[in-house]
Amino acid sequence: MLYLNHQTESHSQTTRRALLAADGYLYLDLAKLALGELDGIPEEEKGDASVLLARNRVLLHLGKWKDAETLAAHGEEAHPQHEEFTVQRAFALHKMKCGDRAMDVLLSAPEWIRRTGILHYNLACYEAQLGDLKTAKQCINVAIQMNEAMRKNAKVDPDLQALQN
């Protein structure tokens, strides 16, 4: 799967089909249809990490920041080995203009998550939005050192626009 990037091998046929369909809809920017597909997943599989992650990505695309933050917090607790919940939660908090809380979420993440470039990238965004451009620049440099592909995103990310000036 290209977009949602979840594992489906352990799921029922119904869930696999729903995840694949949601993936396609989300890729085509049809988030409401993606959410409808996920609603059809059997109740006993709705708590699986891949299903929660898929649902949360759709909520983020729909701009349902509070719902996404709540679901990601649940996902962090239920599936602590999936770092994407932490990143999703912090992003939702950031979009709700709770930058300090978003940074707290990222900074309280387990050490192994802090070694990922996406965490430093997001910290750069939050610091830039809070006006600490020196720290934001340090964070984005670390992110790019960890993953050179982030340089391209940083150049066009509106949250990092202040660093471009």
Overview of this protein structure:
The structure is a single chain. The protein is mainly alpha-helical and about 160 residues long. About 70% of the residues lie in helices and about 0% in strands. Helix 3 packs antiparallel against helix 4 and helix 4 packs antiparallel against helix 5. The mean pLDDT is about 90.
Describe the protein's topology.
Layout: H1 13-27, H2 31-39, H3 49-61, H4 65-78, H5 84-95, H6 99-107, H7 111-114, H8 117-130, H9 133-146, H10 150-156, H11 161-164
Helix pairs in contact: 1-2, 1-3, 2-3, 3-4, 3-5, 4-5, 5-6, 5-8, 6-8, 8-9
In brief:
The chain has helices spanning 13-27, 31-39, 49-61, 65-78, 84-95, 99-107, 111-114, 117-130, 133-146, 150-156, 161-164. The chain is mainly α and 165 residues long. The chain is elongated.
